[in-house]
Amino acid sequence: MHIVQMGMEHDVLKENSRIAHSNYRLLKDHGVRCIELMGSIGSGKTALIIKLAEQLRAKGVRSCAIAGDVAGEDDYRRMRESGLDAVNCNTGRECHLDAEMVRKVLENVNLDLYGVIFIENVGNLVCPADFPLGADYRVVVVSTTEGDDMVRKHHDIFIHSDVAVLNKIDIADAVDVDPDVIAEDYRKLTGGLKEIYRCSVKTEHGLGEVLSALNL
Question: CATH for 2-213?
């Protein structure tokens, strides 16, 4: 029984990877860059997407966002109210988006209208790691309010991400968190090859560096 379960998991991951590659090719064929954001509830994923989209809009680049949640429309509504085109994608009982869900959303989006598609994954630091969606960049967002042990506790999602962002840097002292500890843990995990980008969505500190890291 245990061997069968492993086989089924392998098949699911293999099929997800196949569809993710198809999503990637579809987006490339339309000249669209795609950024996936992962992170815990409250890390600031939605706010970061909105701010990045605003800065892209100022450059003449139109964006659309896929708001992934287990249920509800809260993030979707915030995106729409900010002026960002968005599509809501509820997973039901699933703790992450998968490539097939994204494929179905993309089928109903006029990709020729957009230069960038943001995908906000479901809020947690575990499930999304193993399920790429076809994005150019996978971004993990953590915040100072989550403590200074996030990298040590969640190796997989940091390893499976291309870019890491530490948000809410402006209140680090208030929540008694040392950003240098988080940065050092990330440096050790990545063998010194990557840095975590420190920012505050609220004050817009560091957003330029995040944009540059994503080649936007």
Answer: 3.40.50.300
